[in-house]
Design a protein that fits this description.
Keywords: Membrane, Signal, Transmembrane, Transmembrane helix. It is a single-pass type I membrane protein. This is Thioredoxin-related transmembrane protein 2. Monomer. Homodimer; disulfide-linked. Occurs in both reduced and oxidized monomeric form. Oxidative conditions increase homodimerization. Interacts with CANX. Interacts with ATP2A2. One of its GO terms (molecular function) is disulfide oxidoreductase activity. The chain has 258 residues and is an alpha/beta fold. It folds into two domains: 75 residues, no CATH class; 133 residues, Glutaredoxin (3-Layer(aba) Sandwich), CATH 3.40.30.10. The protein is built from ten helices and five strands; from the N terminus they run αααααβαβαβαββαα. A five-stranded mixed β-sheet has the order 1-3-2-4-5, sandwiched between helices. A hairpin with a 2-residue loop joins strand 4 and strand 5. The longest helix is centred in the first third of the chain and has 18 residues. The two termini are 34 Å apart.
């Protein structure tokens, strides 16, 4: 079925495709696009081309050209999203229970500085990232298990609040593979983050599994230490469990927008 659907769509669009090819403008654009790919990839034509690759190979795309091609591909997909739906399917947004506070560009700094006795684990995510959507139920489950008075979980959409990504040095470029990013804050300051970033600004490969998060962030010890704050009689209010729905977001935005 996955093979037949694109074929049927192609056959159905043949009459319109023939009229489209008959126009010189579109035909010339298609030829120029193909010529760019051939010149960049076909030796010896590519040997005299400039490149910004670290290995100096002129017969392969550098990072700037890859970003341009990905941007143009995204534009084409947005313009033809109905037909692309036949071939692509994004995972659904997580709508289950969680103990997570959602930040915007103004509230994240205020909340981290409000009470420095509280330890925060904050996920920097973007709704368009498949990796972030796959990690969402895992992160929600961790918040249900470990959230307490002195240990809180938060999320901020850096795809929407780009100044937050700049402030906390989390790149939203798909090439860097930094999404999602988990940062541990203690005393209002960053203590550690995963994935780590190398000297080239790219994320070091790391699997976002429940076991890895518990081990790397030492959640069991953090949880036991945070519970002592509650037993000591601190007046930090503990959040109640939230089952997010599109109509219960305080600032009027739906969970999907978040």
């Amino acid at each position: 079925m996955a093979v037949l659907a694109p074929i049927i769509a192609l056959i159905y669009s043949v009459p319109r495709l023939s009229r489209w090819l008959a126009r010189p403008y579109y035909l010339l654009s298609a030829l120029l696009s193909a010529a760019f790919l051939l010149v960049r990839k076909l030796p010896p034509l590519c040997h005299g081309l400039p490149t910004q690759r670290e290995d100096g190979n002129p017969c392969d795309f550098d990072w700037r050209e890859v970003e341009i091609l990905m941007f143009l591909s995204a534009i084409v997909m947005m313009k033809n999203r109905r037909s692309m739906f036949l071939m692509t399917c994004k995972p659904p947004l997580y709508m289950g229970p969680e103990y997570i506070k959602y930040f915007n560009d103004k509230t994240i700094d205020e909340e981290l500085e409000r009470d420095k006795r509280v330890t925060w684990i904050v996920e920097f995510f973007a709704n368009w990232s498949n990796d972030c959507q796959s990690f969402a139920p895992i992160y929600a489950d961790l918040s249900l298990k470990y959230n307490c008075t002195g240990l809180n979980f938060g999320k901020v959409d850096v795809g929407r609040y780009t100044d937050v990504s700049t402030r906390y040095k989390v790149s939203t470029s798909p090439l860097t593979k930094q999404l999602p990013t988990l940062i541990l804050f203690q005393g209002g300051k960053e203590v550690m983050r995963r994935p780590q970033i190398d000297k080239k600004g790219r994320a070091v490969s790391w699997t976002f599994s429940e076991e890895n998060v518990i081990r790397e962030f030492n959640l069991n010890e953090l949880y036991q230490r945070a519970k002592k704050i509650s037993k000591a009689g601190d007046s930090i209010p503990e959040e109640q469990p939230v089952v997010p729905t599109p109509t219960t977001v305080p600032d009027g935005e739906s969970k999907k927008d978040k």
